[in-house]
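Colleagues,

Please find the record for the two-part complex below.
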Amino acid sequence: MPHPILDPTGTTTTAAKPKAPRAHRRHDLKGATVGLLVNTKQNAAPFLDEIGRLLVDQYGARGTIARTKVNFAAPAPEDLVKEMAASCDVIVTGIGDCGSCSASAVADGIVFEAAGLPAAAICSDAFKVTADAMAGLRGAPGYRYATTPHPVAVLTPEQVKQRAATVLDDVAALLTEDE
Amino acid sequence: MTQTPDPEQAQAAIEYCYAQGWSDGLPLVPASQPLVDRFLATTSRSPDEVIGEVEQVGRDCTVYLAAVNAAMAGCLPEYFPVVLAAFDALMRERAARGGGWQSTSGPAPMIVVNGPIRHELAFNTGGGAFGPGFRPNATIPRAIGLIVRNAFGIHPHVLEQATQGLPGRWSICLAENEEESPWPPFAADGGQPEGTSAVSATLLRTCEFVDNRHTPDPEQVLTDIADTISRTGSLIFRDTSAGVVFCPEHAQMLAEAGFSKKGVQEWLMEHCGRTGADLRRVGKNGLRGIGRFADPDTSADDAFSHILPSPRHVPIVVAGARNAAISMVVRIFGEWSGTATAVAPVPAALVRP
């Protein structure tokens, strides 16, 4: 009897992943505390700061709490998720602008959704394929996130503000609209 | 006439592997259970033992999956203890456990083999050290690449986002030329006793040759190497790490002039770097945390920034032929763990008669 050719991936018997939960959406952002999860990539901090400022100014959010994720390649650690879930109402995470951190920004969004917080991940448009692949791996195929044109790292402070303003409505919609 | 295997069947099996998406682009050896069993017979480790994981993609690699991928890469079963040691060594690298395989840098593992195993398994320890042409040197790093692709599921254009990658990814496995090196073996720098069969590994961003066969002055040779290490294009953080794979001729010249490895490392640490003005001209003079950025401030133009913080950031290997004075700067992605992994001997109970 001929021998079968062995599978080198170890995935043939893996069952389909359960669908990742999505947090209940707020009607609007009035009075909401916005958690900003910064992934240390160049310009991520000023970009998210400006998003936070605009959500307060234009959408009536109460304020922002910024935290930094030290390991940009991995999803946010559990204690950080717990802390932000306790102190924030919605989460904005990014900026996904590298090979591992774009996928990881989307993974963060999915983790926060499971913790009950509406989340908006922001990635640069050069990394959509890898961000979508990560969403599939995390049981959230088709996960929606906001995109901004690549590159982000070389933008001046003024350009960062313009970019943030451009993506603001998408971020607000991700945090408030049902699927 | 001797009966040869049926090429039509072999071709069909190879095409089957391509169709499953398992290949790195080159033909694979289709793995069968009897072949993989011969790999597993070279180690006392359980086939189910997890030898590495990439947490963010939710995948891990077992001894069994490593054996299947090593078989597909074209390894002989007796190479498997070296594959396992190389993988263990690589998993000590922070970048390899983190996002390195997904990185836009597209880093390549560099595997260095020391000790008697080099000759037992017929590694190339001489000319053409970076390849190609020799089965263990070519197939062991390829096995690592197939593990990343198949066991971890990190495929190009999807979870792997290399912008350009680099020549030699999945094909750099040096067997140190210990016989013509004036210095202790590289594995000794990684904490293994001399004479041990051991593997060291790190990730590279590129290799850059330094051809200097025109001077008898060892400091001129080191100055030439320092110039390559100090190339601004490679500097993205405050600190950098760059190893040197010395050809035997350069290594022997330095040793005769009294340089130990440590002496070479200290010389390079002192001389590698750029002035503030050089860095400003390329937009890398500012520091934000550990990252470089463009800062219009000219006040530090005359200051010299050293870029190599410790001897561990300048690993030194001797490889290649003693036929020309050509050495290689190997640009390290992140930093080397500074450790070597002993190759586990094949357990006596498992050695087939």
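Chain A touches chain B at residues 3-11, 40, 42, 71-75, 98-104, 107, 127, 129-130, 133-134, 137-138 (CB under 8 Å).

Comments are welcome before we finalize the supplementary table.
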